[in-house]
Design a protein that fits this description.
Blueprint: E1 14-17, H1 35-46, E2 51-54, H2 61-74, E3 79-83, H3 86-92, E4 95-96, H4 97-101, H5 113-128, E5 143-147, H6 154-167, E6 179-184, H7 207-210, E7 213-216, H8 226-237, H9 242-253, H10 262-265, H11 267-273, H12 282-289, H13 292-296, H14 306-311, H15 324-332, H16 340-347, E8 351-352, H17 356-363, E9 370-371, E10 373-375, H18 380-383, H19 387-399, E11 410-411, E12 418-421, E13 436-442, E14 446-451, E15 456-461, E16 463-469, E17 472-481, E18 484-486, H20 492-497, E19 504-507, H21 516-522, E20 530-533, H22 535-539, H23 547-556, E21 566-569, E22 574-577, H24 581-589, E23 592-595, E24 600-603, H25 607-613, E25 616-619, E26 625-627, H26 631-637, H27 654-663, E27 673-676
Helix pairs in contact: 1-2, 5-6, 8-21
């Protein structure tokens, strides 16, 4: 067992914002001292056990963790602030979990648990010896504040638990007696409609032992409108009815210029009237993309004053499907010359949300106009030759990236571009974070932006942040970037990632990921910040709400799934009594899985070999996709086989020919195949065997 070094306390990274530039508040912790937060802190500290806080965006998880850490530090306990998300780690003034446990920041597949435990143990010993306890580790802290637990793989958490038990000398206590306060938003899991029903962190057998106290936070500190909070909760749980969707769309459109196009731009009203039709042609798909809201971006509203369109409370209620003629006249009159008031109304229109795929494929330029300026530490190449220097430089680079501060790494704006302010800056600017404006002038060190809603034109300089370790202040990493976000890149992924993305037209047809609807609504402050349409196109799709997370949140919230007597188990495809559903679900996901190809349940122990039977391989000779279970019969009957193994066969490598001749293999065993997935296959002329 390692003895904890108390002679030298560790220190967290320091991130300093230069007040000569844009002093953006990237931490955004506004409720640490609130009475409700302090009450939760006292409740967590009195529990005397590991505590987990769950909840969607805006429920105050980060404020709670920061307040708990501050209270523990006041009592003289050694606290480590750790997060699995770089942006949330910066807001906590803490470390990425990769540098806390000593694993690489990469997307490579994680090693086995045994190898991972060896890596974690080596890092703990390295911190005690080479790093001289200058960094927190599993062995030299008393309290671990662990955020963004949803991004931690189950193997990593189990390895942390096993290593802490061994090195801290308390094998019978979770994490070796280390006090852990964690937070997770499992609605943010990277899942899709075909994701597995099991294998998630909260389904571990040791989960309740690792975190005996699990609290579900429901109250949103971001959303000020109680009605929006209620609809957001319904969207997360998948309980939105058609009436709820109509109410959501109507309230988001009320008093806005987009209300004139509400009746014929949303499929929700058409579903209610039974007039919605499926659009499956290419030409129809193109028409769908250039819908009414896209036209609204260019509408000048010349036939009425801007104030009337913005303030009329009955604009939505009067817009029905029967008044399409009035809407057509309204759009048709937009071609006439506009006054100054109509142009201001045009500037106040919400921006259209694009899809994630469109932004990823067309908007991420290789050579942006305003890339983030990154200044490496002096003599960093010499520093990286030492073990401590290499670790320190990598930690600074990943802990103070532009994205970790809530900024755009590759910015591409020009005169006329619409942008919004990402962070709250100095008070004398008079423009809050989230304000939308138009770039009037682009200079190397500032952007001149006009904000029509605030009636201000300001020069926004770059935001300059310096990051260093207090024990090594001479090793400094610096990043500079303009604190703005281009509105043409607004998509579900960026709304969730970057702060203060408001005044957006949300479109259900451009949401693709599971839980998108709830996550997007949770980031909006009130109905004034967004408009939404085509909600039913997304909410009525199967798998758009993550079922394991929904069940887990109902379980820790001590709420029944529904009022029905029986519940449908999606894992084993059968009805279960409501009273015994939670117990059945916990046992079911740990024992069996449903095979959609065989239409039956398969034991979890036999799942991998069973899936191999359905693996599709591509015969490179005849070009036909074949299931692996039929491969043996196919290779014996395939006509266009490769030639026999001989010295003249130039299509087979020499070493392969020699080995085949030595082993006495015939030509059928050299038949070529490639492991592929069904989704990547072209549609074959013949049916899959």
């Amino acid at each position: 067992m390692l003895q904890r070094s108390l002679s030298r306390f560790f220190a967290h990274l320091v991130r300093e914002v230069d007040t000569a530039g844009f002093a953006g508040n990237f931490r955004r912790l506004h409720h640490v001292g609130a009475a409700s937060t302090q009450a939760k802190v006292r409740e967590a500290l009195e529990a005397k056990c590991n505590v987990l806080f769950c909840g969607h965006h805006g429920t105050g998880k980060l404020n709670l963790l920061k307040a708990i850490g501050v209270q523990c530090e006041k009592k003289g306990r050694r606290v480590a602030f750790v997060s699995a998300d770089s942006q949330r780690a910066a807001r906590l003034d803490g470390l990425l979990i990769n540098f806390f446990i000593g694993i690489r920041v990469s997307r490579d597949e994680l090693p086995s648990q045994e190898q991972l435990e060896g890596t974690l143990e080596r890092h703990v010993r390295l911190v005690e010896s080479t790093f001289a306890s200058s960094l927190p580790s599993l062995c030299n802290v008393d309290v671990l504040i662990l955020d963004a637990l949803e991004r931690v793989q189950p193997t990593v958490l189990l390895s942390m638990d096993a290593v802490a038990r061994r090195l801290r000398g308390q094998p019978n206590k979770p994490f070796g007696g280390l006090c852990v306060y964690a937070a997770a938003d499992f609605w943010r899991l990277p899942v899709h409609p075909t994701s597995d029903t099991g294998g998630y962190l909260f389904q571990l057998e040791q989960w309740n032992h690792l975190f005996p106290s699990q609290m579900l936070l429901r109250k949103s500190h971001v959303q000020k409108d109680k009605e929006l909070q209620r609809l957001t909760e319904l969207a997360f749980s998948g309980a939105l009815t058609l009436q709820h969707m109509k109410e959501l769309e109507a309230q988001s459109m009320e008093g806005k210029p987009e209300a004139h196009l509400f009746s014929w731009s949303s499929s929700t009203t058409e579903v209610d009237k039974g007039t919605a039709t499926a659009m499956d042609g290419d030409s129809e798909g193109e028409i769908e993309e250039e819908d009414a809201m896209s036209l609204a971006q260019w509408t000048r509203f010349s036939n009425e004053p801007a104030g009337a369109s913005l303030d009329s409370p009955g604009a939505v209620r009067g817009a029905t499907k029967d008044s399409e003629e009035g809407a057509d006249n309204f759009v048709g009159s937009s071609s006439s010359p506009s006054s100054s008031s109509s142009s201001s109304a045009l500037a106040l229109l919400n921006d259209e949300m694009t899809s994630n795929s469109f932004v990823a494929t067309r908007m991420l330029l290789r050579f942006p106009r305003q890339p983030a300026v990154k200044e490496m530490p002096q003599r960093y190449r010499q520093l990286k030759r030492t073990e401590m220097g290499n670790f320190l430089v990598n930690m600074l680079v990943h802990s103070c990236s532009a994205v970790s501060l809530g900024l755009v790494d590759a910015l591409n704006v020009d005169v006329g571009s619409r942008v919004h302010l990402l962070l709250d800056g100095q008070e004398h600017y008079g423009v809050p974070g989230g304000a939308v404006g138009e770039v009037m002038q682009v200079r190397p060190h500032f952007l001149s932006i006009h904000f029509p809603r605030e009636h201000r034109t300001i020069d926004v300089p770059r935001m300059r942040v310096v990051c260093y370790h207090p024990f090594y202040p001479e090793v400094r990493y610096e990043v500079q970037q303009f604190p703005v976000f281009p509105r043409k890149r607004v998509c579900p992924m960026n709304i969730v990632t970057f702060p203060h993305t408001f005044f957006v037209n949300l479109n259900g047809r451009r949401m693709a990921d599971t839980n998108d609807l709830g996550n997007l609504l949770a980031h909006q402050r009130s109905f004034a910040d967004f408009t939404i349409r085509n909600t039913s196109d997304f909410a009525h799709l199967d798998g758009m709400v993550h079922e394991p997370t929904r069940i887990y949140y109902h379980m820790i919230g001590k709420k029944s799934i529904s009022a029905a007597k029986e519940q449908w188990c999606r894992n084993c495809k059968q009805f279960v009594a409501t009273d015994a559903f939670f117990e059945h679900w916990a046992a079911c996901v740990r024992s069996v899985r449903w095979c959609s190809d065989c239409n039956q349940t398969v034991s979890l122990d036999l799942l991998e070999p069973h899936r191999e039977k359905h693996q599709v391989v591509l015969c490179l000779d005849c070009g036909r996709p074949v299931e692996w279970r039929h491969w043996e019969s196919h290779r014996l009957s395939c006509g266009p086989m490769m030639r026999e193994v001989s010295t003249d066969n130039q299509f087979i490598p020499l070493r392969t020919r020699q080995l085949a001749l030595e082993l006495g293999l015939d030509k059928r065993d050299l038949h070529t195949m490639a492991c592929i997935t069904k989704s990547s296959l072209p549609k074959p002329k013949e049916k899959v065997l």
